[in-house]
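Field log, afternoon session.

UNIT: design team B
ACTIVITY: writing a sequence onto a fixed backbone
BACKBONE:
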């Protein structure tokens, strides 16, 4: 009996490689079942997300006990504070305690909002493992701020720092191109330009990041009222060119001027 799981790209490889030689060796009633990466948002699902957050809080508490339990018992929290200041390189408050914090209602809603952003069609992402690091980062934000609860602001700050590889790449690109208009002007000598949204999607975490970028395409003006722009991107540029031409025609018609083109 073979029970296996894989991603879509791996399954496609198994189906194509050797004309499905691997899958053809599975006899009897072998089936391929697709697991949904998102589920509909219901009160019960929201409750399950809250339970998952609580589960990760308990796991973090167990990690603290395993790592620091003996130090706390023998030397107290003051020793933990000194060592934590050395490890993290920052001054901590006098009341600092390396203990897990509960999530407030607003903080849980921020986690749900993030899961909603990682899914489609108003659903919730069911891929929860990538948010483990987000939960822990928010926990440490609350611990360092000596907050009794993890608040929404801690989750939002953790979101900015806890980025996937694709998200970090997108952020780095956007920082180098902070001013879009200046960037576009340096690439084109045209007055009009078409801007598209470039989306970077992380298959592992479900995070999506986007930034507006100019669409480049060579447009050749042919006969009257005809724009030639090859390629898929050319279709966008062609439609943009036709819209501009239609706008010019409308203005000329309103003022009674003749249009030649």
């Amino acid at each position: 009996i073979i029970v296996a799981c894989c991603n879509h790209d791996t399954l496609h490889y198994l189906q194509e490689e050797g004309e499905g030689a691997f899958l053809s060796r599975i006899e009897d009633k072998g089936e391929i079942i697709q697991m949904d990466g998102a589920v509909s948002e219901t009160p019960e699902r929201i409750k399950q997300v809250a339970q998952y957050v609580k589960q990760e809080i308990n796991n973090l508490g167990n990690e603290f006990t395993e790592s620091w339990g003996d130090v706390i018992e023998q030397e107290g929290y003051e020793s933990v504070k000194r060592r934590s200041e050395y490890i993290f390189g920052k001054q901590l408050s006098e009341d600092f305690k390396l203990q897990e914090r509960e999530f407030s209602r607003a903080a849980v809603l921020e986690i749900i909002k993030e899961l909603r952003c990682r899914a489609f069609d108003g659903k919730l992402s069911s891929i929860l493992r990538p948010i483990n690091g987000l939960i822990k980062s928010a926990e440490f934000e609350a611990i360092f701020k000596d907050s009794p609860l993890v608040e929404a602001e801690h989750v939002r700050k953790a979101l900015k720092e806890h980025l996937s590889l694709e998200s970090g790449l997108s952020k780095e690109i956007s920082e180098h191109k902070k001013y879009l208009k200046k960037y576009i002007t340096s690439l084109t000598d045209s007055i009009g330009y078409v801007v598209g949204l470039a989306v970077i999607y992380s298959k592992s975490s479900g995070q999506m990041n986007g930034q507006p970028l100019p669409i480049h395409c060579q447009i050749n003006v042919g006969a009257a009222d005809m724009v030639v722009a090859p390629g898929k991107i050319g279709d966008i540029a062609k439609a943009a060119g036709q819209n501009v031409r239609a706008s010019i025609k409308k203005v000329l018609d309103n003022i009674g001027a003749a249009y030649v083109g």
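LOG NOTE: The radius of gyration is 27 Å.
NEXT ACTIVITY: expression trials, pending approval
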